[in-house]
Specification:
10-stranded mixed sheet, Rossmann fold, 2 domains
Amino acid sequence: MSAHTGAVVVGYDGSADSDLALAWADHEAAHQGRPLHVIISEVDRTQALEVSVDWHAARMAQLESDAKQLLAEARSRETSVDIATAPAAPALIRASKDAALVVLGARGHSLVSGALLGSVSQHVVRHAACPVVVTRQPYDPQSRRVVVGVDGSEESLRALSFAIDHADRTGGTLTAVHGWGMRQARSRFGALVGPAHDVAAATAAAERLLGEALAGLAERYPDVQVTTEAIPVPPAQVLADASQDASLVVVGARGRGAFAELLLGSVSQAVLHHARCPVVVVR
């Protein structure tokens, strides 16, 4: 059996963002009762000049030592560290095939200056076989509100299931959000939307959509306070705005409007770049 099977897997490269990711992953693994597995990937030698074999070996040994030191105070009962023989993105994508969750920082040591999301994070989110969490410092560290984008698609319903389960385990609240532009509303709701009452009709249809998605969840999760928001604003903007007072934003990898062949929808991509708290992409 793979060391990754059923584990919360976290990528670690010694950066501040990866320290944050490791702490988040440990918290989540402890709440879920899952093993925590840390993957230290090969240092990207294209990011430094004249990297010798000795320097590389010393650097990897130091990263392993740092990770084990952090794990000495972990909440998770079962922890392990693995030095991968591949760069970060391929190593994490490979591990995702058996993992329950992959966690990584928004940016690592090899980021381009000023980038909001590192290339490793973008690549892993697009190609992982399990949900991926991209961590960042929350704008409101005291918040316990979990926000989830719901559009009625299968992937958004899986995102809703992840979100309410997370809120239940962590003592948080849940806000299910549906946002739309009016062009999108006319396409989706058809005859329900007319020129004289566009917003009212679309809002009523969106509230029904949210109600249908949440049906039965109150009985399964009686301790979670659930609210809904149907807002006539494009979904990426609604979710980015909501992230300012959220502990977590959860989205499906692709929504109702995504082309079937896309690995990641435009809303998910925008939220990953602009959210002010950790983001989970569920598939």
